[in-house]
Specification:
By secondary structure, this protein is of the alpha/beta class. The protein contains nine helices and ten strands. β5, α3 and β6 form a beta-alpha-beta unit.
Length: 298
Amino acid sequence: MVALPIRYVEPVYRPPSEADSLILPVTDGCSWNHCTFCEMYTAPQKKFRPRDEAEVLNSIKRCSALFGDEAKRIFLADGDAMTLSTRRLVTILEAIRRDMPGVRRISSYCLPRNLRKKSVEELRELADLGLSMLYVDAESGDDEVLARINKGETFASTLDALDKLGQAGIKRSVMILNGLGGATLSRQHAENSARLMNAAQPEFLATLVVSFPVGEARLRENFPDFQPLDISGLMQEMERFLSTLELKRTVFRSDHASNWLVLKGTLGADKPRLLAELRAAIASPDSAPLRPAWARGL
């Protein structure tokens, strides 16, 4: 039996598009971990801590010995590798370049707050060393919704982070949570999230549907009047969001397992088609190609 070259602390998360990537933890858990809708890093074993630098560098060497040039993509885990100092990130990226020259893409999750002390010049240095994509879970562009979920971010702080990444030449994949404002804040959640995307013009945009596999108790601590949207309400919110978007060339995906209706395209070229598909589903939900509840994998 071959020992794993990397020590993993379960559960391990990564974006759907990183399914073929080598997952390399450089931190454990999430440095913020106060979002009331999120259950990803609440397990006791997921308490936040940076990985020891020597352990990370040793993992890279062991992966090099085991995989050679077969590994083409690396995802730096856990919740926010970008909380590490620029010096530590440079050391890790240099080690990947030296020991795993076959790697062509390095990516990571990124909280906007983790870029506040990083300059555009520092981010360009990381980009030059191979950091090519960051997944920014914006969740919403509405300040009231962000406050209700204890995100610790605002429209302005998220836009500042996205602008820095854009200036540094790092691709941005942004996630918005459909239904996060509930019934009472649905309109402003949709419209202000679209405003944020219009201002940032990210390379990639994805929407997921908010879900609570273990209940809504944490969310309701700061959002007691939260009223979940039904399928019709979720699609109407999505219609408002898409209608308000004015994107030039953004790859859009609403195909995560949480989504009832799969939508894919490039915005703005495919905006008319996507809106037509969505409006048809709203008008005739019984004949729409909705994902069955059992297949949503939640």
